[in-house]
């Protein structure tokens, strides 16, 4: 979605430029008014300018700022309909001074607030980017190693009807290095397409991880019974078939080969996250029969 014209303008104009422009405009205004206005009227102009800046700084939203500006604008406009003896140029100044300075002050406050917010949330943003892959938007390898112990610790030590099992499912495109060597852009598009298929074919409660080089891992939790195990195997089969319908598109459209495997993990397992990944890759490469751990 394209950014609005106002957002584009805000990105181009820095806070320092706005502050410098405001101070320069205020200084020129006071120097000019000091020579042409009487003392009382000069003080009124200074007060109104100050009120405009305060209004902008105290406004919590653009709608509140707009409402305040409209009320003040209407009040000042009444100067033209009342028997107030005052130069026309100064009447015009009274009409625009508060809206102009209030808008500038509101923009300055908004910019300062955003900078402050980014400073406070820098660690959160850094952590989010660390655990999110920029290409797919899915969790990263680091996130998998972080989430795996949490999933295992949530499982019960006792086998009963409601016992649960963690299923780690691997899907990866074969010959990834060859695709990447031929066209990085086409390979990236293929990975995005794979991520979209996973999003469409898998359940919302499952966690998706992009492990780099065309490999995705899906963590699922199911009940420990034959029906649930068969269901996850069927779901993996459907997902693999859907992924195999994708193409690597350059000047020549080429089909791809998807390898897939899964690992059933209970609380009693001693497999670490590294060992689970090694098992998944080994089984996907050699097409081992189904194993339960």
UniProtKB/TrEMBL annotation:
Annotated transmembrane regions: 12-29, 41-58, 65-86, 92-108
Keyword Transmembrane annotated: yes
Q: Which UniProt keywords apply?
A: Membrane, Transmembrane, Transmembrane helix
The name this protein goes by in its record: GGDEF domain-containing protein
Species annotation: Lactococcus hircilactis
Q: What is the lineage of its organism?
A: Bacteria, Bacillati, Bacillota, Bacilli, Lactobacillales
């Amino acid at each position: 979605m394209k950014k609005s014209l106002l957002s584009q303008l805000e990105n181009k104009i820095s806070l320092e430029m706005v502050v410098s422009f405001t101070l320069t405009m205020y200084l020129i205004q006071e120097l000019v008014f000091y020579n042409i206005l009487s003392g009382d009227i000069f003080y009124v102009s200074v007060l109104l300018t100050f009120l405009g800046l305060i209004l902008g700084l105290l406004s919590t939203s653009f709608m509140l700022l707009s409402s305040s500006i409209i009320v003040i604008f209407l009040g000042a406009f009444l100067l033209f309909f009342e028997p107030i003896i005052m130069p026309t140029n100064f009447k015009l100044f009274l009409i625009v001074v508060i809206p102009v300075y209030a808008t500038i002050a509101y923009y300055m406050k908004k910019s300062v607030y955003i900078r402050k917010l980014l400073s406070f949330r820098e660690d959160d943003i850094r952590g989010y980017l660390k655990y999110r892959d920029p290409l797919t938007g899915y969790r990263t390898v680091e996130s998998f190693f972080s989430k795996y112990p949490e999933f295992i610790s949530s499982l019960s030590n006792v086998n009963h009807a409601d016992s649960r099992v963690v299923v780690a499912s691997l899907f990866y495109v074969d010959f990834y290095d060859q695709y990447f060597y031929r066209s990085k852009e086409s390979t990236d598009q293929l990975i995005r397409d794979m991520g979209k298929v996973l999003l469409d074919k898998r359940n919302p409660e499952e966690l998706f991880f992009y492990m780099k080089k065309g490999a995705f891992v899906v963590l699922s939790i199911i009940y420990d019974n034959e029906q649930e195990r068969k269901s996850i195997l069927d779901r993996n089969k459907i997902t693999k078939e859907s992924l195999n319908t994708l193409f690597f598109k350059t000047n020549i459209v080429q089909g791809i080969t998807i390898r897939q495997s899964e690992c059933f993990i209970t609380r009693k397992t001693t497999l670490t996250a590294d060992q689970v990944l090694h098992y998944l890759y080994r089984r996907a490469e050699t097409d081992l029969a189904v194993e339960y751990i």
